[in-house]
Amino acid sequence: MSTPDRLSVLLDEHASLEKELADPAVHTDQARARRLSRRYAQLAPLVETARALDQARDDLGTAHELAGEDASFAVEATSLEARVEELSDRLREQLLPKDPDDDKDVILEIKAGEGGAESALFAGDLLRMYLRYAERRGWATEILDAVEAELGGYKDVAVAIKSRSPGGDDGAGIYARLKFEGGVHRVQRVPVTESQGRIHTSAAGVLVLPEAEEVDVTVDPNDLRIDVFRSSGPGGQSVNTTDSAVRITHLPTGIVVSSQNEKSQLQNRESALRVLRSRLLAAAREEAAAAASDQRRSQVRTMDRSERVRTYNFPENRIADHRVNYKAYNLDQVLDGDLDAVIDALDRANTAELLAAGS
Fold first, then answer.
1. pLDDT band at 292 (very low <50, low <70, confident <90, very high)
2. What is the pTM of this model?
3. What is the CATH topology of the domain spanning 106-353?
């Protein structure tokens, strides 16, 4: 589809969504209203740019017509030409194919890898970093499952990150902002257990999944094996005297998820199903993308220190993202949730890659 045709289709979609959202009957179905509102918000910047570009082109035409009578219009025409070029470039970027999951909420999982106790402590640092980032962005967070380590931190933790408003105005694009966080994160520092002051390297894995709604993934109850067990804390100490923890195995794929963070078996079952649906959606998206392109960028699945996407160097207060050669010396601020600069660098690199592929 040509660029003008694609723009026309998206402008028509925006107008149609505006009419639908003006119908009170639509808002009786909250899930549908939220889905439509998110798409409407996603298209709004493109519509704004298209309208501004049309206006700038009209103004430029008028300036050219009047330039022969008044020299000041020639100066204005030069300024308007730059404006038209700027808006044309912005519109070209906004018309790039979008990830269908960009406006979804997220389930983020962090798993300790190589490094033992230090890796678990680092997983705890990463969790705090993402929770603080979510707080800065005005997003809501919910710990779905957490397996704590004996010396602190986490062996495994899953957190849901969601928009606070039904329409997603405060958080449209949560997955778009966090999707490049997936991969192996490496830390270099002196562990608290190190008596000689030597710097150690360990790693933790991050997996970012768009949260699936029931309309995205249908889970057949007959495909599930559900086991219950007793929740336990660090070192296997019982923290619950009832079998409230839940483990769900999706038999067709072999995917296993568990939840023991909630007090009731029913709540843990629902939390585990949320994670399962998101993993199934991610697997389906990955399979489709792999069929379309062998060059698709995927999240690193192993916990090997050599397969890192980012390094956190504490002695130098340095953060480095190896995919885009990003480097900064504000690690303390990043770990406190100041992630926008590195995320912006990854987003710009992805945009440039898409533009190059389409040119």
1. very low
2. 0.72
3. Alpha-Beta Plaits (3.30.70)
